[in-house]
Write a structure and sequence with these properties.
By secondary structure, the chain is an alpha/beta fold. The protein folds into two domains: about 1-170 and about 360-370, Rossmann fold (3-Layer(aba) Sandwich), CATH 3.40.50.2000; about 170-355, Glycogen Phosphorylase B (Rossmann fold), CATH 3.40.50.2000. Helices cover about 45% and strands about 15% of the residues. The chain contains 15 helices and 15 strands. The chain has helices at about 15-30, 60-80, 105-110, 120-130, 150-155, 180-190, 210-220, 225, 240-250, 265-270, 285-290, 305-310, 325-335, 340-355, 360-370; strands spanning about 1-5, 10, 35-40, 40, 50-55, 85, 95-100, 140, 160-165, 195-200, 230-235, 255-260, 275, 295-300, 315-320. The chain has a seven-stranded parallel beta sheet, with helices on one face. Strands 12-11-10-13-14-15 form a six-stranded parallel beta sheet, with helices on both faces. Strands 2-4 form a two-stranded parallel ribbon. α5 (about 150-155) links the parallel β8 (about 140) and β9 (about 160-165). α6 crosses α10 and α7 packs across α13. The radius of gyration is 21 Å and the shape is globular. The chain starts with a strand and ends with a helix.
Length: about 375
């Protein structure tokens, strides 16, 4: 088969982008041809991929996405494919990988009613409707059940079109046999003393991921604990706002914000705790990546994958509605209790041995390649 994959932007460090790449490679391994339509591609192009960088521009993202969709449809009319798979919501998809939450639900519950008069709203609502409307034929690959009720409520989407996938955790995130050696080398490289604690936050989109909450929690620690705790943040985003916040909170010297990078497993092995106090998170793949590396996790209950932390007994979950004081107290408890961290680590590694959290790409490929109903 000739398959067409559509996503607005590819860069090597995004969770959505890594899901796309694993799924496309799984399809290619089965002998199918891969064409990718995108507005931006950063990084290496896999062997055998045809990457089409769509040459459209506009002053607004909404207008640019409209032009992208139109250009792709015209190209597909000239060069048809057997399946069109989208990783962003847009018309004309045979299969949609649902990494993003329900836009209509957010627009109606988190925005002023006047927002729904805007051109931005009209665009994104229409593109979401094109995928989820009851009369649409698009098959939907879900990576969390959290959002499905919202799509059903707003669009009446038939349950039969939803397909729940297991998480897709890359095997290289698991702790290797020489994890202890890697940890020692990492901590030496980053000049971490034996009694220092490394708090790690990973994810692009610092505002959505709750970096402001992490900085407040770090600043709230008792002085003796704060003085031996460091926070490293990794993600593709503009850090200046959060660096200013760190300075205003008096913790700038304890914080480093790094751009996205490819050696995340080293950080997972070298850290003492992953913090992920997201405001909104459909899944939170990094939560599972930390667990399988044996790194205890502190996350908010809003994350679609937060339940895995509790199932694995691999850390703590801050309940909704969120309260900063609860996050602050929980962080202090987790950093203070080394015995609990050791238990969470052991539990997480045991969970990694048996949980079905690695087959996302293979199951997605099965559904993509299945004959249409």
């Amino acid at each position: 088969m000739q398959l067409a994959f559509c996503l607005y932007k590819y860069f090597p460090f995004g969770g959505l982008q890594r899901d796309f790449l694993r799924i496309a490679l799984a399809c290619q391994t089965r002998g199918h041809a891969i064409r990718v339509y995108t507005l931006e591609w950063s990084g290496e192009v896999p062997r055998g991929f045809e990457v089409v960088v769509v040459p459209v521009t506009a002053f607004s993202n909404a207008r640019r996405y409209e032009r992208f969709s139109g250009w792709v449809q015209r190209d597909l009319a000239r060069r048809p494919t057997d399946r069109v798979i989208g990783f962003n919501k847009m018309p004309g998809l045979d299969v949609y990988f649902a990494a993003d939450p329900c836009y209509e639900e957010k627009a109606r519950t988190l925005r002023n009613p006047l927002y729904r008069l805007s051109g931005r709203y009209r665009h994104f609502a229409a593109y979401e409707r094109a995928v989820f409307a009851a009369e649409s034929k698009t098959e939907i690959l879900m990576i969390s059940q959290v959002q499905q009720p919202f799509f059903e409520k707003h669009y009446g989407t038939p349950k039969s079109r939803f397909h729940l996938l297991p998480p897709g955790i890359a095997p290289d995130r698991r702790a290797p046999a020489n994890a202890g050696e890697i940890r020692v080398g990492f901590r030496h490289e980053f000049v971490l003393a034996d009694d220092e604690l490394l708090l790690l936050q990973i994810g692009s989109g610092f505002k959505t991921k709750g970096l402001d909450r992490s900085l407040k929690a770090l600043a709230s620690l008792p002085e003796a604990l704060r003085s031996r705790t460091r926070l490293i943040v990794i993600g593709q985003d503009e850090p200046s706002l959060f660096l200013r916040q760190a300075r205003s909170l008096g913790v700038a010297e304890r914080v480093a914000i790094l751009p996205g990078r490819s050696d995340i497993p080293r950080f997972l092995l070298g850290a003492d705790l992953l913090i992920h106090p997201a405001y909104n998170e459909n899944t939170g793949t990094v939560l599972l990546e930390a667990l399988v590396a044996g790194l205890p996790v502190l996350a908010t209950a809003v994350c679609g994958y937060a339940h895995y932390i509790e199932e694995a007994s691999g850390g703590r979950v801050v309940p909704e509605p969120f309260a900063q004081d609860v996050l602050n107290a929980t962080l202090a408890e987790m950093l203070t209790d080394s015995a609990a961290r050791a238990a969470w680590r052991a539990n997480a590694l045991a969970f990694a041995e048996n949980a079905d959290i690695y087959s996302n790409a293979e199951r997605a490929a099965d559904l993509i390649l299945k004959e249409p109903r």
